[in-house]
């Protein structure tokens, strides 16, 4: 009798141990409900893909949509990179993932491989933020601003790590472009503050592509760009800089009160500056029912997915709040920062970004540790770069426009790889 009871207890103990070990193993894998079995028209790949929602507020029905692609080779050894597009209100899924540096690009009814996808070097996480962008939603229309976006993005990361616990201690990098020059520094600042209470994020660096960092400097550098490229006359340049500059015009436009003077001056602009046009194929692809089903996505409050949201109520005056000082606080915290610019970008020209980075380095007392020099992609000049204090860097990408990975994918990938590895850009071919 005693022997039977003992055997029974041993069997129960072993069964419980096996159950515990099974639960541990299951816990170490990503959320299976978010796993993508295959996107319509997708070529065969060996890496895993996931997409779905992270609920921010169940009561008020607020959720952010993400698309996550693991690294092509050995994802366990590769860092995690969060990518954010700007706008404010433009989609990291449609722009970043499916038009710039993701693994696929729509072509007719199918997807083709992007040979210069950034998931060759990292596990890439694309976030449609803030709520109201793309497939992200809120059932209550509300005004969103930079602080709300930063707070929501932090909460997203915390809850995304609950879905993917094996990435919690992974090296984390944050990158993106344009108005993400506001999103990324403010999110990084919250991460640094959060880590002082409890170390939750292994933040290793941020990279800001063609970013809005200081409203007046960034926008007013456009007149110089147009003039230096021979797109406007001397007299028009003088009018743009003396009578009504770009920052004044944008400020008046956002306030709904463009003065007759600024209206008259801006009518002289011969070249309209716009972002790279997102192909209709991307819009058509992401609006297919079978694609949305494969992505575990749904439309809430909108009839179709759009590249940039037309329902988002964003406090656009936030653009006038400088974030270059926030970048400075990140550098002071010991986090490496890279600012890169496509040298053919007329939206946020490199001249403004270069001036801001140089000014920040001077303010922080950072000496030049790598003088301004050329860097190479293969046998071609990839751009130019300068490093301050081995922690703050500026680089140009030759031939790239506002969305650098779209217009110069090979050079952008070289720059991205060097950034992740913390090494200088190639000095020779």
UniProtKB/TrEMBL annotation:
GO aspect biological process, one term: proteolysis
UniProt entry keywords in alphabetical sequence: Carboxypeptidase, Hydrolase, Protease, Signal
EC number: 3.4.16.-
Short name of any one Pfam family annotated for the protein: Peptidase_S10
A GO term for molecular function: serine-type carboxypeptidase activity
Secretion signal, residue range per the UniProt entry: 1-28
GO cellular component: vacuole
Domain of life of the native organism: Eukaryota
Alphabetized Gene3D superfamilies for the sequence: 3.40.50.11320, 6.10.250.940, alpha/beta hydrolase
Similarity comment: family membership: Belongs to the peptidase S10 family.
PANTHER family (UniProt xref): CARBOXYPEPTIDASE, SERINE PROTEASE FAMILY S10 SERINE CARBOXYPEPTIDASE
Descriptive protein name: Carboxypeptidase
Naturally occurring in which organism (per UniProt): Aquilegia coerulea (Rocky mountain columbine)
